[in-house]
Amino acid sequence: xLKQGLQQKQQQKLSPLQIQTIKLLELPVLELxxxxxxxxxxxxxxxxxAESQDPDDDSPKNVSLSExxxxxxxxxxxxxxxxxxxxxxxxxxTFSVKESFQENLIVQLGYRKLDExxxxxxxxxxxxxxxxxxxxxxxxxxxxxxxxxxxxxTTEQELEDILKIIQEFEPAGVGAxxxxxxxxxxxxxxxPSRQNARTILSEYFQEFTKKHYSKIISRMGITQEExxxxxxxxxxxxxxxxxxxxDSYNDQAQQIIPDFLLEEKDGxxxxxxxxxxxxELRVNKRYAQLLMDSSxxxxxxxxxxxxxxxxxxxxxxxxVEAIKQRHNTLQNTMNAIIDFQRDYFxxxxxxxxxxxxLKNIAEKTGLDISTISRVVNCKYIQTxxxxxxxxYFFSEGLMTEAGEEVSTREIKKILSxxxxxxxxxxxxTDEELVEVLQQKGYKVARRTVAKYREQLNIPIARLRKEL
Length: 467
Known about the structure:
Elements: H1 16-25, H2 29-42, E1 46-49, H3 101-109, H4 116-127, H5 139-150, H6 156-166, H7 179-185, H8 192-203, H9 205-209, H10 213-220, H11 224-235, H12 243-246, E2 260-265, E3 268-272, E4 280-283, H13 285-294, H14 300-340, H15 342-347, H16 358-365, H17 369-376, E5 380-383, E6 386-389, E7 397-399, E8 405-407, H18 408-421, H19 430-439, H20 446-455
Parallel strand pairs: 2-5
Antiparallel strand pairs: 1-4, 2-3, 5-6, 7-8
């Protein structure tokens, strides 16, 4: 038997303006500029306002939608957007990659007398190095890659010989297959301390990494002072030769442009949103006039033209309003963060950074947590003490013995300072670090200290021991 029934569902449908705003909220300033440039190219109704041009100037070229006839279905709308702060500044910080270490190695390869076949294999090997300058693939697998990609048959021995040539290039240590080989490639035997360092790396590498210094002294028959000199030679070596040229970035240049500027003047914090090269927009008069004329023609072609222009005008209206809402939302969110963390922003002292989660800022602004999350994502602020991603200011909290809530970043800062100040011949264990924190009024479990230590990339006590 078939049963018929009605089911009512309540579903919230987002308007085109809401959808556009959500998409724009997530974009950092550089991507926003690209998005606006693309919209200008695709929508003939949009015009860019020149810097020297008055947005309210009633010139023949532009018109506001408020000039439409009263019976036109398109609502009155203010299209000019002031999407920059009072003190828009042209400067911004850009971090870009100049030359990848692979490119540098290929240049050095050009100085070697090699036949075309060998050179092609060498270029392929260089291209197989990772960002740190290491060859992580074994030579057998690499020989299959060469056959597949270059259609050249090679052997492991030939690859070994070619790799030896690459390992002679600068920076020293490049082309190594592991850390041990990388360090050995950087050491010669010109001095006794370097000879001992080579022996340690080649014959007692495991003991060295585990800091079993007494075993090394006993087996090599050297004094503690001689061991100390050898270890000093080793720690001066570069474990990441590839990162020395490109700073571990990829070949593609990466840019960070701050979305916010924060200045401290006479005890006051002043936040602005630089517009940089983001265009300001309004409607092109020719198409607005076409809409008015076509709506009165009564012909099919006229109605189609009017429909097309109306669609473009609606799209322009939603886009410009979305930019305006994006600006207001970002401004309100950043002001709320600054207000919440005012003590920190005055001088950048991390111990003054309060525990703060998305919910705190959502409550201050009256916005959804999801909206705050979109604002915070991929956005940066330039302060008088450095450039920071907005995510940096959000952290969990812990309670002190006095019942006060403190940021986990504050705990980590004290933990890091305690390790820096410790006696390296007797480094602090996690249990001792717990005691140090408790003496300062922070009640933290040992497993929490271990977790924070690992997040700070601080090794266990035994591996921090120095001679």
